[in-house]
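Readers outside the structure-tokenisation community will struggle with the description of the input data as it stands. Showing the layout once, in full, would remove most of the difficulty. For illustration, here is how one protein appears when written out as sequence plus structure tokens:
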Amino acid sequence: MLDLAGKLDAITIDLVDRLVYLATEPMPRLGVAGPHVRSQPCSRPPYNIGAEIILDKLGNELSTTVRHLCEHRGQEVPTLGSIVELAGWLRKHRVAIATMPDARDLHDALCRVCDEARRAAHLEEREYRISQAMVDEANRQLVTSQQIVKLAHKLGDQGKGLSYERVRTLRRRGGLTVAYEDAETGTLFYRLGDVLAAHSAYRRRSTKNAVK
């Protein structure tokens, strides 16, 4: 189980931040467009689908293993809000994993998904730090309400409470501006940075009101 401990240790905030950044990074355009051709935000996913899939897979594998272990031991499933917390809990309880009837399968599945996450984040050989330029670039990306909610639980405290209703509330109260509207489908696109900034301001106001 020593190798599993190391792989779970590698599921850090930096790694998750890197995958979140990649999940909002625009995919490269294919083909050649003339000077009169304008691409539309709805013509291609405004984020990296591969990174999004890996984030979902990593979170699902970790949370499923935590639940499976707790059910087998007859204990309450802990409330863990992030991928990093899930990985940390499993590392702490890795000895319990070794006593499970399906210990080998659990071990192999966890090691495999941790390796996939590191490969997707390009972190196999070195530590990766998120620069401010990368954060700024991610914040400029266009996302729909659906994509925002999918990313929210992977953003840790920054995305806490960010839901479809919250996005509508922010827009209705004037704290969030629509960056683009698809004329054919009516789909609204927002800049990720604008959403996070408006959400943060909303939470600060709510906290102040609660204290009064």
Summary: The chain is about 60% helix and 5% strand. The longest strand covers residues 188-191. The two ends are 51 Å apart (CA to CA). Residues 52 and 102 are 28 Å apart (CA to CA).
